[in-house]
Amino acid sequence: GHRVGVLDIDLCGPSIPRMLGVENYQIHQASSGWVPAYVDSDKRLSCMSIAFLLPSRDSSVVWRGPKKNAMIKLFLSDVYWGELDYLLIDTPPGTSDEHLAVVEYLQEWNPDGAVIITTPQAVALADVKKEINFCEKVGLPILGLVENMSGFVCPHCAECTNVFSTGGGEGLAKHLDIPFLGRSPIDPNLVMLLEQEDKTLVPNVNDPEAEKEKTTSIVETYQRCELSNMFSGIAKHLTETLNVKEAA
After folding, report:
1. No. of helices (H) and no. of strands (E), the chain
2. d(CA 147, CA 155)
3. Across residues 65-72, what is the average pLDDT?
4. Does the predicted model carry a pTM greater than 0.90?
5. How far apart are the C-alpha atoms of 224 and 209, rounded to whole Å?
């Protein structure tokens, strides 16, 4: 029931609009600023991305740091989100201009913190340690860590196979004393949902040709995917972390 905005600042690889099914949205200017794309009819989930400003899906963004910084500042100051409970900012991997800019421009609003996403492999964990070190250097609190791609859920038998190993993210969180929020395996139905054009059709990888159940929005369709239950647990854990932080 929360009102959530998603700001995509992965300027060189903006994929959030495509995954949410609003890729063809045309940005328009209101008196209060740019109006984000609303994903559902209740306007509880909204999105803003540079993808809305590009001529096509295949257009590249070839910008140096100052221009990237200016666009991020514009997104943070000129988008009319309305009343939000949470603003989620999706960043590219690493610790580059995008990360420095968003931390700098949000400083006066005292952001709750960062959620670190990693896969279980040792190589990925080595990179994530740098991102954690970045957060510590700029004074950005770390709310927790999620282990992504932690196994593959078979669509036929629902058994989870550890394709990329498992437990690396949890081990790193324990080692660095960071809250571990949970694991997210690969769900073929969610992959199909994010890639299909019509987000209101409930995917079924077991029978792709069968007539699909229709929903009212991607929000409802997503709730039919098995992975939504796991994400609900992660979101609950994150909310509890935020409540403890606010009470402290």
Report:
1. 8, 10
2. 20
3. 93
4. yes
5. 18
